[in-house]
Amino acid sequence: MKAHRYAAILVFIASAAWVLTGDFSFVGSATGQDSEESAPVEQTEPATTDEDAAARSLQSVAVAVIPSIDHTRTVRVSGVTQADKRTDITARAGGIISELPVEQGDRVEAGETIARIAPEGRDAAVRSAEAALEQARAEFTAREQLVENGTLPRLQLEQQRSALRLAESQYEATVAELERLEITAPFGGVVDAVMVERGGAVNQGTPVANLISLDPIIGVGEVNESDLRTIEVGGDAQLRLVTGETITGTIRYISRDAQPSTRTFTVEVEAANPDLAVPAGMTAEVILRGEPVVATPVPRSIVTLNDAGELGVRAVDADDQVVFYPIDLVDDSTDALLLGGIPRGARVIVVGQNLVSDGQRVEPVEAESEVIERLIAEATGGAASQ
Questions:
Q1: What is the DSSP letter of 343?
Q2: Core-most of 78, 189, 193, 244, by most CB within 10 Å?
Q3: pLDDT tens per residue, range 328-343
Q4: Separation of alpha carbons 85 and 187, rounded Å
Q5: How far is CA 284 from CA 76, 223, 238, 241, 266, in A?
Q6: d(Cα 131, Cα 171) in Å, to the nearest integer?
Q7: What angle is formed at CA 112 by the lines to CA 272 and CA 105, rounded to 5 degrees?
Q8: Average pLDDT estimate for 372-380
Q9: What's the pLDDT tens digit per position in 78-118?
Q10: How far apart are CA 30 and CA 22, in angstroms?
Q11: Residue 361 DSSP code
Q12: Which pLDDT band, with edges at 50, 70 and 90, does 213 fall under?
């Protein structure tokens, strides 16, 4: 019985070992035979090449050859309108305001009277000085004749000449004092404020009225240092007011000293304002025009970044490989961008530019011509392409 028990245990261990090996081949089967039978099956699979695999993996992108146009480079900055001239008119002599012929808001011409100060005896001083001058002239004439006749020495004539010059200077001083009583406008403009009342007393240097000149009106803005190369004095410009009105002008001044805090440069635009409809201090968009440059109208959606963080567009070259063109913003319209730096005839990727990388080979698909025509029309407002 013990022998049978040992035999059963040995059979059980052998069976367990056989199950664990996973080898369930039938008796008489050979591994070499299985390999020979499976070899033809593997050879029936189609052979593949690297070129075929690359062809199946090409990324499709939509491309378009967008015609370039001549477009005037534009710089837009926020600004404000200012008066061409502004000054506080002050009293040149002390006294009482006797006349005040202007009111706040009146339009005056250069030399027009703003106010008058009561003479208070200054006119009498002028008459006295005038009489003294006439007497000095008469005495000089009489002594000159006596000197010519030899009755008086020439030294007395020179003394009388000095007396005549003194009388002339005193007369001129009294006349100038009288003229200072009349306060006039130094230039044509609008009386923006009147600081005195008729009958009020003023001293020399007291402000009487504030005068501003609004024709032309000046638009002032600050441009970045990178935009200085775009604009020049005398160039075309526009002022777009908050009312929606746009007036045309010219660039009259460009600062050459940057603001320390912002590193920007002050630009002044001069625009005609004959009816004084545009006031000073109004918010306006200052639009500065440069020289025409070659630009390409593209939708905003195709602009992307390369690995270096540069802003540009992707295109496809003659070998269907992706190339990157850094761009220069020429103008920013409502629906599209006008960009420089894109070569003429470039096949720009308009769909799928963010799914490919530089140098990658792709499968370009031409975009519809209607899409290209719409881009140009939106960017140029109907301008003809070149």
A1: P
A2: 189
A3: 888 776 667 888 888 8
A4: 9
A5: 10, 14, 10, 4, 15
A6: 9
A7: 60
A8: 63
A9: 999 999 999 999 998 888 999 999 999 999 999 999 999 98
A10: 15
A11: B
A12: very high
Domains and CATH numbers, the chain: 59-73+293-380 (2.40.420.20), 76-84+214-292 (2.40.30.170), 88-208 (2.40.50.100)
Using CA atoms of 277, 245, 234, 327 in order, give the dihedral in degrees to the nearest 10: 160
145, containing H or E segment: helix 122-149
| Helix and strand counts by DSSP (H, E) for the chain | 6, 20
Q: What are phi and psi of 109, to 5 degrees?
A: -100, 165
What per-residue confidence (pLDDT) applies to 4? Answer: 64
Q: Which of 292, 283, 303, 294 is nearest to 349 (CA)?
A: 303
**Spatial separation of the C-alpha atoms in residues 152 and 165, rounded to whole Å:** 20
Cis peptide before 153 (omega within 30 of 0): no
For residues 7 and 289, which has the higher predicted lDDT (pLDDT)?
Answer: 289
DSSP 97: E
Rounded-to-10 torsion of CA 187, 193, 198, 199? -110
**Prior bond to 40 cis, omega within 30?**
no
pLDDT in tens, 46-55: 555 555 555 5
CB 103 within 8 A of CB 191: yes
Helix or strand (DSSP H, E) at 162: helix 154-179
Specify the DSSP element, H or E, that contains 209.
strand 207-224
CA atoms lying within 13 Å on the CB side of residue 139: 17
- Residue identified by tokens 């000054």 is 87
